[in-house]
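ok so I'm stuck.
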Amino acid sequence: QVELVESGGGLVQAGGSLRLSCAASGRTFSSKAMAWFRQAPGKERDFVAHITWSGGETFYVDSVKGRFTISRDNAKNTVYLQMNSLKPEDTAVYYCASTRDIMTRRDPLGYNYWGQGTQVTVSS
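replied:
not stuck anymore, here's the structure
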C-alpha cells in the first residue's frame, strides 16, 4: 500500500509560478517511478511529467517542456513539480501517481497508486 498526498495548488495569474509536492508513504520500496497527470473540466486525464526514483531520469509532455520541472527527494519520498510561465490552459486538477513498472511513462493504466489531486487555476 502506497499513499500519495499532493499539495501546493492554488490560484495564480498567467505568467506566474507554482510548486506542487507529492508526499509518498507506506510501502514505497515497490515504486519505480512517479508522474504528474492533470485533468481539466470535460477533458481526459493527461500525462504531464515522469521521473524515476533510481536515476532521476525525466520525461515531459511537449506542451510543458521548458516551463515545468519534475524533481524528487528520495530521502523525503517526495516528488515536486515546479511550474513556471503558467498559462490559462494549464488550469486543471493535478494528480501524482506511482508505478512499479519502469517502462510505464505516459499511460495512466500503468500506474497503480494515485493521489487525490490538487487544483491549479491560472487566470488570464
